[in-house]
Design a protein that fits this description.
- The chain is an alpha+beta fold.
- Helices cover about 50% and strands about 15% of the residues.
- A two-stranded antiparallel sheet has the order 1-2.
């Protein structure tokens, strides 16, 4: 073992970390793990925001991808409120 392989036509080398969800898998060199993980978390947050906005009637256009400063401001407010909510829940669980 401990040799390179191909997965879906992409090279995977020993030491790569694997990340996946319902949309697919990604093999990434270990030295990029933190950077990639943070970027993925930000994308997931934005996708959650978009889904919530659309459920409540917002049009997708200009929202995803975010092409207006107003929508980016709304996203930042949404993130702050969500973090405050998680902080309250976390504090109750202690």
């Amino acid at each position: 073992m401990n040799v390179p392989i191909a997965c879906g036509g992409a090279p995977v080398f020993p030491g790569h970390f694997m990340v996946g969800d319902q949309d697919g898998m990604m093999a990434t060199p270990a030295h990029l793990e933190d950077e990639i993980s943070q970027g993925c978390a930000k994308m997931e947050d934005f996708d959650d925001f978009v889904l919530e906005e659309v459920i409540f009637g917002a049009p997708v256009i200009f929202l995803h991808p975010c092409t207006t400063h107003e929508n980016m401001r709304k996203f930042e407010v949404w993130k702050t409120k969500r973090q405050e909510k998680w902080n309250r829940v976390s504090n109750r669980c202690r």
